[in-house]
Amino acid sequence: MALLDITDLQLSMKSYEGETQILHGINLKIERGEIWGMVGETGSGKSLTGLSVSRLISTPPGRYLAGSIQFQGKDLLKTSDREMRALRGRHIGMIFQDPTTNLNPVFRIGTQLVDVALHAGRTDPSVLGLSAGASRRDFKAAARKTAIEALESVGIPDAASRIDDYPHQFSGGMRQRVLIAMAMIGKPDLLIADEPTTALDVSVQAQILRLIHELVAERNIGVLLITHNLGVVAQICSHVAVMYRGRILEAGPVLDVLKRPSHAYTQALLESVPTVHTRRGELRGLSGLSPEMFV
Ligand SMILES: Nc1ncnc2c1ncn2[C@@H]1O[C@H](COP(=O)(O)OP(=O)(O)OP(=O)(O)O)[C@@H](O)[C@H]1O
Fold it and tell me: Can you give the residue ranges of the ABC transporter domain (predicted)?
């Protein structure tokens, strides 16, 4: 059984203009230990695919027209909201783009991490090293200890005292580490990361990618990494899925797809990446390519 098995996922969204189909039959299988990069131009449906797996799309305006999302054999599209809340934060971790909007500025880092640890602990006390009968006080103490360990595991020095800082006392890279710690606190089996390094400068971006790579190797989890950046994919992904207008055009091991792209769109996408040798005016755009050329 695959860790995550998305089959023929079709999603439409309603807006004031009417209902539009956004995902046109997504198929994707992620096993433990794999880091899947999902690339594609803006609006191709990457984020809505990730949000579907986390079941964070409200229905309405969203509507699933067909398909299933099997997570460890359970169809997430048929899972109750209550069960989904328990899965998120425990079995499915999430990291989103901008750490400034995902950390609450008025609460200490520790308060926010402890909240997440307590949520995961309520679902499964073993995450905090406790049994179900543990007292409230035990839960609180264990959640704080787990929060400090989580900060240490993402490389925050002096975690035991930094945990009482406020978000503004952390740099952008450190805040993103906190969000990774938060996503990993429940010891998830699957991590969904949507543009986790886009807001960071290049050297911090590389550190964060290295950290995600290390966590995957250490904990043998599966990752869906959504990005518009092929450089990020080449750096840490084992596999890649190329999206275009709500469809996956091409998917497979990263070396195969990037070295021998079988699709004209993937080729065009690769050619559009600037290199140090690209001269001004040489950049290739993707405009003018219609989806009919590819599907
Ligand atoms: N709430 C919504 N209601 C209606 N349409 C939406 C909604 N959210 C997204 N869409 C549309 O769905 C399409 C896919 O959006 P999505 O955010 O998944 O793209 P993306 O590939 O992640 O793009 P980006 O790289 O810009 O984040 C877009 O055309 C977008 O306009």
Answer: 4-270
